[in-house]
Give the backbone structure.
Amino acid sequence: MGFEAFVAWKHLTRRRKTGFISLISLISVAGVAVGVMALIVVLAVMSGFDRELKSKIVNVQPHIRIERVGGIPNMEDDMQLIREQHLPEIVSIAGFVEGQAILRSANNAIGVIVKGIDEQREDLTFFTSRMYYGNFDLTDTVTHQTRRRWIFWKKRVEQHTGGIVIGANLASILRVRVGDSVTLISPFQEGGQSLLSGRAESKTFLVKGIYHIGMSDFDSSLALISLRQAQEMYHLGERVTGLSLRFRDVDQAERWKTHIATLFPATYYIRSWYDMNENFFRALKVEKSVMTILLALIITVAAFNIVSTLIMVVMEKTKDIGILRALGATRRSIRRIFVLEGFTVGLIGIISGTVLGLLMAFNLNPISDFIKQTTGLEVFPSDIYYFDRIPADIHADDVIMIVSFALIASVLAGLYPAQKAAKLDPVEALRYE
């Protein structure tokens, strides 16, 4: 800062009153701290939403879906065609059947998305690691029943009951547990494609497992059965709804989608996980940008508070500034004092806001639970916000951006008062003294 500027700064601050001016300075510090804290928390939650949504969507949905109207008749041939390309990023290729159905228990009924999967070819690590009760087992349960055909003749009948795995929320709605039976009612087309040809298939399944992903959409509406059972339910024969492709790096799906599309005729349509959720992720990105701009206004308002505080300091210290100028202090030294003052107020607020913001971002769920227990207010309803817990992901880049913006705003806030103080004429400042 320079020796003469340091002496001038000591002289100006030596007789500073601790009343009204200090209160305004404290409010300025608090304003910066609140703005920085709010920005850190909001960006952490937005980033957490983005990360969790992407993680769960790409683990439940295929990275690339290859589908055809009316189903794919030659699944093995199409899979072999893809394998012949020797794409290094592909981890698994499997057929699947997907459709809507009604799942009914003894207590309730609800519409669900049924997905028939090939346990031998599909990567099921994500589901098996999130089993709440039971096991991920879609195999049939064989039971034997004795039926009376004639008065003295009984026939022993072998009955196969399919296995089904459902989400925790869905199990709660149906009020079923592992080992309970549920009935799956699915529509299918018989004969032609007219509405009059529609039929319904009903079959009993045994609940083998209950998973908990932590995303409301999947936990409350997705039911998993074996590929063979799904083909029977929807009367597809050997056809499948589509092929599921998974990659080592999910971001490679967009890169290989175009290449894979060239292998199939126009009757096939190929979509990536991003295509199926593009609008949602775009909306989330726009929302994050808008929230950042709106919350940055808090820091801007705090910067104006710093301006008003320093202007009042200039007015209060007019005589002192005049004396210093008369004794030989340069305009540059006076200007530097007030720039440093604005920087100091901003820095204290930034440090306080950063510490509070990081502490809050790391403890959002305990804070939410505490508010719910004490006030009964549910801060984060899972049926509205998709997740049962508040996701938070703190990025160093976001924190650096927030701190840099706040520092720049604090320095800029001190420029006008500093220039005003530096332009004071010593004669005018001391005329009535």
About this structure: The first strand starts at residue 64 and ends at 72. The chain has a mean pLDDT of 80. Residues 33 and 350 are 5 Å apart (CA to CA). The first helix runs from residue 3 to 14.
